[in-house]
Model the fold of this input.
Amino acid sequence: MDQQLLSIIVCPACHGELSPAASGGAEELVCQGCGNAYPVRDDIPVLLVDEARKPA
Done:
């Protein structure tokens, strides 16, 4: 994931900082505020709250 892109995008739910992570081989962006994990498909972050994996 491009670092410049990561520096400008934020969580659509709480506007928290997003950090890259890998979960089960799938890349995702995890919010440091609310904990939502957003999938990354073909190097494109899917920043839709409905698509997010909720924190446990």
